[in-house]
Amino acid sequence: MQLRLALALSLAVTATVYASRLLHLQDGPVRPLLASVMITALCLWIVRRIVSGPVDRLAAETTRLAQSLTEARQAAEREARLRHEGEAVWTADRLKEHVKSKLDGRALFVAANREPYEHIRVGRRVEVRTPASGLVTGIEPVLRACGGVWVAQATGSADAETVDEHGHVQVPPDDPQYTLRRVWLTGEEEDGYYYGFANEGLWPLCHIAHTRPLFETQDWEQYRAVNAKFAAALIEEMAHTREPWVLIQDYHFALLPRLIKEARPDARVAIFWHIPWTNPEAFDICPWRKEILDGMLGADIIGFHIQFHCNNFLETVDRTLECRVDWERFAVKRSGHTTLVKPFPISIAFPSAAEAPSPAPSREALARAHGAVGRWLGVGVDRVDYTKGIVERFRGIERFFEKYPEFIGQFCFLQVGAPSRTLIPRYHDLMTQVELEAGRINARFATKAWKPIVFLKKHHSHSEIEPLYRAADLCMVTSLHDGMNLVAKEFVASRDDERGVLILSRFTGAARELREALIVNPYDVDQMAESIRSALAMEPREQTARMRAMRATLREQNVYLWAARLIDELSKIPSLARTTR
Fold it and tell me: What pTM was estimated for this model as a whole?
């Protein structure tokens, strides 16, 4: 009897501990009185069963009860973990439901210069191509999740053949989920608005990359005309929508928020500036700075990637316009209208746990396909743009071979460079410079069977790039100045093997989130050389720890959360109907 009592009490204590844990794994702790009653009843039942039951059943009862309690605990912990993940991680489905509740049946309207899909004529066939664009990478998953209308410039050679009479085409082509409205520009408009004012003026002005901005009066006139053309297209699309919600993308459309707000005061308008915002002294260079700022302040919300860019913008407004800057709310009040200025760090659609990882690519097959021979492989993926630091990256690789000649023949760097804005002389010259620099370094170090840098001058899709990300030992993102840089995030997201090393410029927005990367100054060639050496020497355990931490950050801070935050802020803007009562 004493043995039975001892066993009964021991098992009762164990059951009490497990029961207590189970009770606290629910949505909240159970009330103390109810918990006490439940645990007491459980203990009494155990004691009675064991003390009064036959001894030969004691072991079986004990084992069975312990097993049941263990399974219950594991199930409760699993349920609690899934519930927590469901609350913490944003998905396309969750965003869809969230936006539905906020928009109340209204469509979401997006304006961007870049279209998410181009139709290109190749001989007698028409092919669909996704442009190499960080903006498309970030915004397209949101429209897939929410539906709506994307208004963009038509740039494909077969775009006109694939739209209806209203300029509409349903996309994605294989699984239509939203409408693309194409806007056609004349050659003169594109030259002035896009190549001129936007990319020879605003782009170098906002990027501290030591390229002189060019501002021409005729370019400014075309910039104004194209903003008005896009405003007309948006207003037409929104004609039958009450209180429409509009997300305007990037520096191409600084005047558009004011134009939309004047035509549709009931619209809720946000503009997201995908590139940095420079300091007030630098922005003073722009002859039409007041018009640019006034146009942007037509929006209800202005978003940047990081707080530093928000501060620069508010200081610029404070110095340039007659207005009141509320530094506590990070808002600008001008002519009776309030504009909030907030950071919304954009991200990517991180693969869900349910998605099966793609097969690991064969390093040998990639080497044969691209001539990237060697024991170790590095990769870089960029548009060929002077802000991306490709030439500086190549010089860092050159310095690496100077300092560590034992890696000659062993390490190869594969640079994928998409030609960009080649009609602008600075970009055309940069492509030549990049090719010459790669050739010079290869001539210095190459052997018969190997060269240090393989430069692929081509447009690329994500499906083409992902195998390179997954095969690489390291990825270099060495921007001289960048708003965010989604290549860094794409590389991390692709590494479900939790291996590989990211070398990341401190002058990117991504460096504020992906802190486990090897952070470098791209102007310091010795530091870049050392970072390559550190990446190649890094132990697998450290690689995994760093990559796992970065992937956890991206899993939580994904593009769906970015969109949800932006939509939430727009939902807080008082509607015109409420404010005019």
Answer: 0.83
